[in-house]
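It is worth pausing here to work through a concrete case rather than discussing structure prediction in the abstract. The textbook approach is simple: state the sequence, then state the predicted structure, then interpret. We follow exactly that order.
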Amino acid sequence: MIYISEAHALDSRSPMSSGGGHPLVQEPVTLEERKKLAGSCTTGLKISNIPTLVDLMNDAVNKAYGAHPDRLYLVGKDGKIAFAGGRGPRGFQPDELERAIKKELGANAKL
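Step two, the predicted structure:
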């Protein structure tokens, strides 16, 4: 997983107006702040077992993959994109990603 810029940071163009169970955060201004927030998010979502990388402050990964606000990609064993999901939130289809992961790992793969 790659953590990118916050979609609804308090200081963004479209801040989240209420928590709704989600943390209200400011957009990090340093890489260290972004790393810390990424760690808080993966822990809070109970997905800290998934290896997580953090996009640099120039948002190069976000820009290259059109990832904002969220997007699912799977890099195959050959290093090429094996699955590219639609833009979130409507295109965010984890079930489709799961099928792609199973296909990539083989028919008997258990997640």
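Step three, interpretation. Residues 72 and 85 are 5 Å apart (CA to CA). The first strand starts at residue 2 and ends at 3.
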